[in-house]
Every structure is written in C-alpha cells, then in structure tokens.
Design brief:
Elements (H helix, E strand, L loop, with lengths): L1 H46 L4 H97 L2 H25 L14 H6 L18 H17 L11 H4 L1 E11 L10 E6 L5 E5 L4 E5 L5 E6 L5 E6 L5 E6 L2 E6 L5 E8 L3 E7 L3 E7 L3 E6 L5 E6 L8 E3 L5 E5 L3 E6 L5 E6 H4 L6 E6 L5 E5 L4 E5 L6 E5 L8 E6 L5 E6 L5 E10 L1
Antiparallel strand pairs: 1-24, 2-3, 3-4, 4-5, 6-7, 7-8, 8-9, 10-11, 11-12, 12-13, 14-15, 15-16, 16-17, 18-19, 19-20, 20-21, 22-23, 23-24
Length: about 525
C-alpha cells in the first residue's frame, strides 16, 4: 500500500514538474516574442525622422500658410472686383462715345448722300421738262406741215424732227439722266444688329488656380508616419522622389527696381547672385546691368545703349561673368568691380540667354531658336542643341551639366547634352502651363526643375526624372506674371522677376527640405 502511494505521489510530482516546465517554456517564448516585437518597434521608432509632434508642427505650418494664402486671396478678390467694375464702367463710356461718334459720322455721310441724290433727281426733272417742251414744239410743227405743207415739206420736217428727237434721247442716255426712280434702304451693321439680341455685356469667370490638396496632403503625412510605425520591416521608408515631394520654397525678401531719370520701365531678363548677398540683374529695356545690394539699393554698373543686353552667367568662381549683347558674348570681371574685359564671341547671331559650365559656354540664339555649345577656351562652336521656342531663349543645365532643360510650345523637355537623347517631356496638361507660357527655367541642388508659368502666375517644379510635378509657388508674394528665374551657385536660393509693369519686382525665395 505504501509502495503504491509512493509511486502515485512520485508520478504526480513528475507530472506537476512537466506542467511547470511547459508553462515556463511558454512564458519564455512569450517574453522572447514580446522582446522581439518591442525591440523592432523601438528600432522603427528610432529610424522615423522626428516624432508625431514634428508631424503636428508640419501640419500647423502648412495650415498657417494656407490660411495666409486664403486671406491674401480674399483681398485679391476685393481688388479684382473693384478693377472689373472700373473696367466695365470705362467700357460702357467708351462704347457710348463710339456710338455717338458713329452716329455723327452716319448723319454727315447720309446728308451728303441725300444732297447728291436730290441733285440727280432734280437734274432728271429739268431734262425731262425740257424734252417735253421740245416734243410739244415738234408736235406743232408736224401739225402745221400736215395742214399746209407739200409732201416734200412733210417728209423733210419729219426727218428733221426724228433726227432732233433721237439726238436728245442719245444725250439723255449718255448722261444717265433717265435712270429709274431712287429710294433709300437702311441696312444696319450686322455687329450692331446683334447687339439688340445680347443679354449681357459680359460675364465674370471664376478662375480656379491649381488645386492645393491641403487636406489629402496632411492626411497623407499622418498615414505615412503611421505606415513607418506599423511596418515590421520598416527600418527606413522609401518615398518616390523625396527630393521633390518634400521641398518647399520659402519667401525671403523683395526688391523693387524703379525707373531712374528718363529710363524706360525696367525689364529684368536674367541675373546672378553674389557671395556678399547682392544681386546683379540684366535690365533689357534700358540696355544696362544693375547691382541690387542686400539693403535694396540699386545702381547701374554697366550700360551700353547701342546694344540689347539680354543674358548673364557667372563663372564657377564668381570672379568673372559672361554677358550676351546682340551678336556678341563679352567677358567681364566681377570682383572687385564689374568691368568689361573682352569680347569672347562675335558671330552673325542673336545671342539670348547663356549658361557656363566647366569646359563650355552654352548660348541660346534666335532665328533659328537653338542652343550653341561653345568651347570656352577658343570660342569655337562645337555643337548645336535644341532650344526653347517660347520666347527669349530660356534654358537650364543640370547640376552635373550633362542635361539641358528647355521649353517648347506645349511642354518642358529634358535632353542629354552630348547625345541629344530625350530623358522626358512634360506636357502642358501635366504642368498646367498654357501654350508658350513657360519663361525662366532653373535647377535646384536636387536637380529639380523650376519653370516660370508666366500666364498662370506661378512657379512649377518638376522632379529630375520628370515623374513628379507640382506648383511649388501657386501664388507669389506680389508678382502676378513671373518672367525670369535665376538660382544661386548652390541651388538653394532663387529670385523671380516680374514681367513689364509700372516698375519691376524681384522676389527672392529659399529652397528647403521639409
């Protein structure tokens, strides 16, 4: 009995020990699994840039920016309403004045026409009255001959009367005095006639600029953060074209280039940044090159009224600059003073925008519109590349100087400099740029492409592979029609100039990664 108890007790102890071992094994596995999960989570959290508070700050920054744009848009709408109302009033006044002018002209012409027609009809009346008198006279002569004359007299008289009547009829026909009755018929101008059918003098269209997907974009930021946190394999999370999608252009400052003395309205077509913070700009309208200090003071540093100065580009060291003037590319020293040194290239071509590389100078010419690749040592033209057809020959080189970017009538094109092979072509339907609406072109430090949408009033950015397009500046600070766009050497700062207004505006922006 005792032996059976001992065996049973021993078996129970063994079974209990096995259960404890199993439980311990399960707990160990759970702890190891939990440790793996949390370790992975901590590793993921460490690899996520910033934390959720960073996302909140980013959302707040974008929302504040959109709020400021909305406030500016409200003021813009008020100003636009006032301008349109003034335009309509002036239009009505001009239209009434034109109608009064046309009315006076009509009355004057009609009176002259009426006087002429009355004189013609009165002349006809006199001729017919005289003809009636002649006929009555001949009728009396024939009656007398019939009574008293001989047959010979009768014959001679009839011949004379016939000859006389035929002669007078011939005179009447020759002079056109016996044309038919005259009347007047009013035929109104078809354009004025259509005015009676119009129902309004015009209409105001609401033009929606490129939609800013604020809410979807912010939601995507949160979802992206959540994806990073939840993905067990997410040591890092790759984003397509991060150099483009996460780039913003922040406003830095503005300059106003006003007329001096008897100058024309300034028109800035190109320029360059100096290391001291100043800008050098090309004023095409006044055939001059000007320097704008960091404080906004403008001074003329070179002028040549006999030439059309169009473009400028610095060398890599900023010690020299090349300037395009009519049929010449000239070399200037920049430091310590901007000074003409020599004519680098003189050909029977119209030079427009130019760009500098390590071994070459690229010059856009007109008629035909193309880009010439010139050896910077001897000035020999080595190659002809495709160029812009949108006005003033704007183009840009990639940071490695292996690609050229230019605009065609309906697209922005990126090509290989040496082979001419097309890397991509962004159509106007992608960029939102109207036909021949592209102007200044530049490239930032990530090789993203910036294009002035002159007709759309914004700056469009295209990724270096052409796969991503966005309006990086849907609305500029004050500029309504951006024209020229120039980056600094680092590709982190650029300025935009306005098209011809009462004075020229220049706005400086800085490219930053979010």
């Amino acid at each position: 009995m005792f032996k059976v108890y001992c065996v049973s007790h021993a078996n129970a102890l063994v079974k209990e020990k096995e259960q404890c071992f199993t439980a311990a094994t399960v707990m160990t596995d759970f702890v190891n699994h939990a440790t793996h999960i949390f370790t992975g989570a901590f590793r993921i959290a460490d690899n996520v840039e910033g934390c959720f508070s960073h996302i909140i700050r980013s959302i707040k920054k974008k929302t504040d920016s959109e709020l400021q744009n909305t406030i500016k848009n409200l003021q813009h709408l008020e100003n636009s309403r006032t301008n349109i109302q003034e335009k309509v009033i002036n239009f009505i006044i001009d239209f009434k004045s034109k109608l009064d002018e046309l009315h006076d002209k009509f009355l004057k012409n009609f009176e002259m026409l009426h006087d002429y027609e009355i004189s013609c009809v009165q002349n006809k009346q006199r001729c017919l009255e005289k003809f009636v008198e002649i006929l009555e006279k001949h009728e009396m002569m024939l009656a007398q001959v019939d009574k008293k004359g001989s047959p010979v007299d009768k014959f001679l008289t009839e011949e004379m009367v016939k000859t006389d009547v035929m002669k007078y009829l011939h005179d009447l026909d020759e002079d056109g005095k016996c044309h038919g009755d005259t009347t007047y018929q009013w035929k109104e101008n078809s354009i004025l006639k259509n005015l009676l059918d119009i129902e309004d003098i015009g209409n105001v269209q609401v033009i929606k600029k490129e939609k800013i997907d604020l809410v979807p974009g912010l939601r995507k930021d949160i979802e992206l953060y959540q994806t990073k946190m939840n993905s067990p394999q997410a040591n890092t999370l790759q984003i397509k074209n991060p150099e483009c999608t996460q780039v913003v252009a922040n406003y830095v400052t503005s300059y106003c280039v006003k007329c001096h003395g008897d100058e024309n309205i300034p028109w800035v077509t190109n320029g360059m940044f100096l290391e001291n913070g100043s800008l050098i700009i090309v004023d095409k309208h006044n055939s001059s090159i000007k320097e704008i200090s960091s404080s906004g003071t403008t001074k003329v540093i070179y002028s040549k009224k006999s030439s059309a100065i169009r473009g400028i580009c610095p060398t890599n060291a900023d010690e020299k600059a090349f300037v395009s003037m009519d049929h010449t590319i000239s070399e200037f020293s920049v430091s310590p003073h901007f000074k003409y040194e020599r004519d680098f290239q003189t050909k029977n071509m119209e030079f427009y925008q130019i760009a500098f590389s390590k071994d070459y100078i690229f010059a856009h010419i007109g008629n035909p519109w193309c880009v010439k690749m010139i050896d910077r040592n001897n000035g020999r033209i080595l190659k002809t590349l495709n160029g812009s057809s949108c006005g003033f020959g704007y183009f840009a080189l990639s940071r490695d100087e292996k690609k050229i970017i230019y605009s065609k009538a309906n697209s922005v094109v990126c090509e290989d400099v040496l082979s001419g092979e097309e890397f991509f072509q962004c159509a106007g339907t992608q960029t939102g740029i109207a036909r021949k609406g592209a102007r200044g072109i530049g490239v930032d430090y990530h090789d993203n492409i910036y294009v002035c949408n002159s007709k759309g009033g914004c700056i469009v950015m295209i990724s270096k592979d052409g796969h991503f397009v966005k309006s990086i500046l849907p609305i500029l600070k004050e500029i309504k029609q951006p024209y020229a766009l120039c980056f600094d050497k680092c590709g982190k700062k650029f300025f935009v100039s306005s098209y011809i207004e009462s004075h020229c505006k220049i706005e400086v922006y800085e490219v930053q990664q979010q």
